[in-house]
Amino acid sequence: MKHELPKLAYGYDALEPYIDAKTMEIHHTKHHQAYVDKLNAALEKYPGLQGRPVEELLMDLPNLKVDEADRTMIKNHGGGHFNHSLFWKYLDPSNKKDELLAKEITLSFGSIDEFKKQFSDAAAKVFGSGWTWLVRDGKTSKLLIQNMPNQDAVITNGQQPIFGLDVWEHAYYLKYQNKRPDYITAWWNVLKLI
Known about the structure:
Elements: H1 21-43, H2 54-59, H3 68-91, H4 99-109, H5 112-124, E1 130-137, E2 143-149, E3 159-166, H6 173-176, H7 180-187
Antiparallel strand pairs: 1-2, 1-3
Helix pairs in contact: 1-3
């Protein structure tokens, strides 16, 4: 079974004016599709791995019996597929506020506003390309803000992703050019979970 690009539950224009339709379309149909295609290509030599969910592949990455070049492909493109599949769900405009999550964030960070400030600061400081995540630590169950480079997936660190922000330029460059902080500020308007 090959990995597939997930369908969005909303139109590319659903996040306007904060995230423009053209960026959403390119991000989903070109960038995410490329991660899926390259993950499938990396798995072609390994029929026993082809039916495994991407999160299992990523969690078991050190133990996979694959060539090192293919391990890197699975890490990079599997991570890209995994991260983006979650990202689209978090952006869904039909999401409702998660009151329990909001309370937990307030307890962990002092207030929602303080959390947004810390998260935004972390996202603005990602060097190059990567992601900023709100995660639950696997050992302590605490909520943490975690930056990850490239398409590295937080699950490989034993962390559970709550939601994340893609700060690769492809996520915002058409509308915001090099103004990542403006994109981050706008993104809070489409995240309905808190």
